[in-house]
Specification:
18 strands, six-stranded parallel sheet, 33% helix, alpha/beta, binds nicotinamide-adenine-dinucleotide, Rossmann fold, single chain, nine-stranded mixed sheet, Dihydrodipicolinate Reductase, domain 2
Length: 360
């Protein structure tokens, strides 16, 4: 079987070392970082890396057997000299579009880009164009799309045993680029990637303080209501109940507790003495596995067969549109924003200082 050559751009936490932060976390199976995922995948050889920080790449090289000669401070030079098949882009969103577009236009056959997809809608649209024009297989690092527990949750919803899906709840939507990027992709997936028709009630509690014209100086927490064309409504709440999600169907509900550790089903039943009751049922067993490993296998499968990935660049664009839809709704005093959205000029523009990753 053919093996593919992979390179990572952005060698910090998600690029390389986040596994060291969650060694015993029930909700996340390792490998978790891009490099750890490539290193573990037998169909992939991790051959090069690029980062602005040579000292971080030295740790990367030591951990993943990438020699100093294949460590680059200029990702363009790395792409030109190494010609990797699969390119990971694990920088912050402000740098994402430039790097993804360059990689797509300079030989990458597959791209694993971290979330959030982009810092503005214009950049996200330019990424879609470059990826599609160059026929690049693409997955965004919204890991729950490849998480076997959420696969099972979707399977139960799709089976119809709880009746028609009506409502999706995100209990703590969090900051839009860092956290809601995951949440919005998850509700799209649970609702079978049906298109959203509008967003309303967008609110950023700190929004006015951190907006400077069209520039967002911080990644804002935000929530709102999303209406899908198939009649499903999603509520992105801001509550202290972190990393929990619920799918409410006409005859029952499924709740995920503690970020993919536990799931609970309640099914509507006739109970003597009551009209109807929602009673607990057992969530079906599933095998826990690494979502990063599955995401990478999905890219390998796309390269082998030419078939689309489970994510894809249009899917990434759809979740990005929900992020900017919440922002636009807030800017218009909670008004209804029709999707597909046009004319958003907002850009996330922080000046992030990269943290030193936990290399041991
Ligand atoms: N999928 C997940 O579960 C998950 C978890 C954590 C972080 N993330 C995402 O991963 C991304 C990276 O997060 P992080 O915490 O690792 O960030 P970080 O800021 O620690 O690291 C970013 C790295 O990119 C490098 N970089 C910046 N510009 C570059 C360029 N032009 N060329 C090469 N390297 C460049 C920096 O030097 C730094 O090492 C973010 O978008 C974040 O939201 C995803």
């Amino acid at each position: 079987m053919k093996t593919y050559r992979a390179a990572v751009i952005g060698c910090s936490r998600m690029g390389a070392f986040i596994d060291n932060e969650v060694p015993d976390y029930e909700a996340i199976k390792l490998p978790y970082s891009h490099a750890a995922g490539f290193f573990a995948e037998e169909r992939v050889n991790l051959i090069a890396c690029a980062d602005l920080r040579p000292e971080v790449m030295a740790h990367f090289g030591h951990r993943y057997n990438v020699p100093a000669s294949n460590q680059y401070t200029d990702y363009r030079e790395m792409l030109e000299k190494e010609q990797p098949d699969i390119v990971s882009v694990a920088t912050q969103p402000e740098h994402r579009a430039e790097i993804v577009i360059y990689a797509a236009e300079h030989g990458a056959k597959a791209i694993y880009a971290e979330k959030a997809m982009a810092a503005s809608m214009a950049e996200a649209a330019a990424m879609v164009e470059a990826v599609e024009k160059n026929k690049v297989a693409f997955n965004l690092g919204t890991n729950r799309r490849w998480h076997t527990g959420f696969d099972k949750m979707k399977e139960v919803i799709d089976s119809g045993e709880l009746g028609r899906l009506r409502t999706l709840i995100i209990y703590s939507n969090g900051t839009l680029f860092n956290t809601a990027s995951h949440n919005f992709d998850l509700i799209l997936r649970l609702n079978s990637d049906q298109p959203a028709s509008w967003i309303s009630g967008g609110y950023l509690p700190a929004g006015d303080r951190i907006m400077d014209g069209d520039v967002l100086r911080e990644d804002p927490a935000g929530g709102g209501t999303i209406q899908f064309e198939n009649g499903v409504t999603a509520h992105a709440l801001l509550t202290p109940r972190n990393s929990e999600w619920e799918a409410i169907c006409e005859g029952g509900s499924i709740t995920c507790w503690n970020n993919g550790w536990q799931w609970h089903i309640r099914k509507q039943q006739e109970v003597p003495g009551w009209r109807t009751c929602r009673v607990p049922e057992t969530f079906p067993a599933f095998e826990r596995a690494s979502s990063t490993a599955h995401l990478i296998k999905d890219l390998v499968h796309a390269l082998d067969t030419g078939q689309p990935t489970r994510g894809g660049v249009r899917c990434a664009y759809a979740s990005t549109e929900l992020i900017f839809g919440v922002i636009e709704s807030h800017l218009h005093n909670g008004a209804r924003i029709a999707l597909p959205m046009t004319g958003s000029k907002v850009r996330l523009q922080r000046h992030p200082t990269a943290r030193h990753p936990k290399t041991e």
